[in-house]
Design brief:
With 240 residues, the chain is of the alpha/beta class. The protein contains 9 helices and 8 strands. The protein starts with a helix and ends in a 13-residue tail after the last helix. The mean pLDDT is 93. It binds pyridoxal-5'-phosphate. Pyridoxal-5'-phosphate is lined by residues 36, 38, 59, 80-81, 164, 205-207, 221-225. Residues 36, 38, 59, 80-81, 164, 205-207, 221-225 line the site of pyridoxal-5'-phosphate.
Length: 240
């Protein structure tokens, strides 16, 4: 199947899921598809944009710099992978939304870098709901305090939550994780923290995006579902 066929299938699955799910309070009504482009060639990425993709998710600042140089379209750029403090300045220059804030220290670095360029950087807090040790993200009980601290920063805007569910072939195993993140999202909304702009619940990938949407996701991060199996290394992105 072509990239545009794949995307059409996903769009129709999302429509079906949204139309048939049980509605919870504060549940966002529309769902944005983030095309995850790790290891994808510029040709494939351009094909996805032609097929209607308007937002791209990159895992690494370094790789994003290379992708960036090939794409001149005005689309949204999201950072979904772990961010090291020494890459913050570049990240702030490139990304509309950073999904992976997992410490006050990182948020402070972003605040400083964003202040220097006069930008208010939208961020999500990455949550490690399942408590897996191998995962990035803050434990559930630290999310609200961190969100409150971020909301006091002048150049960072707290825009919501992100999680990566444990990898499993059965998407149902991710449901409790998604539900927990949605509950936290609702709880945060109800706190009415000054300066917060809570609008994104980033959860769900190729294998489990429909379950994530049933549980309230409005930002699904899809790689293989759009591009097919991921190349092991990125091809064709070397500088000419
Ligand atoms: C790779 C990646 C995805 C997309 O994974 P697929 O299973 O290919 O859809 C989503 N989110 C993050 C954080 C990723 O690293």
């Amino acid at each position: 199947m072509s990239i545009s066929d794949n995307l059409a299938t996903i769009v129709s699955n999302i429509k079906f899921t949204v139309a048939n799910r049980k509605f919870f309070p504060n549940m966002p009504e529309t769902v944005k598809i983030l095309a995850v482009t790790k290891n994808q060639s510029p040709v494939a990425i351009l094909e996805a944009i032609d097929a209607g993709i308007t937002a791209i998710g990159e895992n690494r600042v370094q790789e994003a710099t290379s992708t960036f140089s090939h794409i001149t379209h005005s689309i949204e750029w999201h950072l979904i992978g772990h961010l090291q403090t020494n890459k913050v300045r570049q990240a702030v220059n490139m990304f509309d939304l950073i999904h992976s804030v997992d410490s006050e220290k990182l948020a402070l670095e972003i605040n400083r870098a964003a202040g220097k360029v006069g930008k208010r950087q939208c961020v999500l807090v990455e949550v490690n709901i399942s408590g897996e040790e191998t995962k990035f993200g803050v434990p559930r009980q630290q999310v609200i305090p961190l969100a409150k601290v971020i909301c006091q920063m002048d150049f960072v805007q707290f825009c919501g939550l992100m999680t990566v569910a444990p990898l499993n072939t059965d998407p149902e195993t991710a449901r409790p994780v998604f539900r927990e993140l949605y509950n936290l999202y609702s709880e945060l909304q109800a706190l009415h923290i000054p300066n917060a702009n809570i609008q994104w619940l980033s959860m769900g990938m190729t294998n489990d995006y429909q379950v994530a949407i049933e549980e309230g996701s409005n930002l699904v991060r899809i790689g293989t579902g759009i591009f097919g199996p991921r190349p092991q290394i990125k091809k064709g992105a070397e500088p000419a």
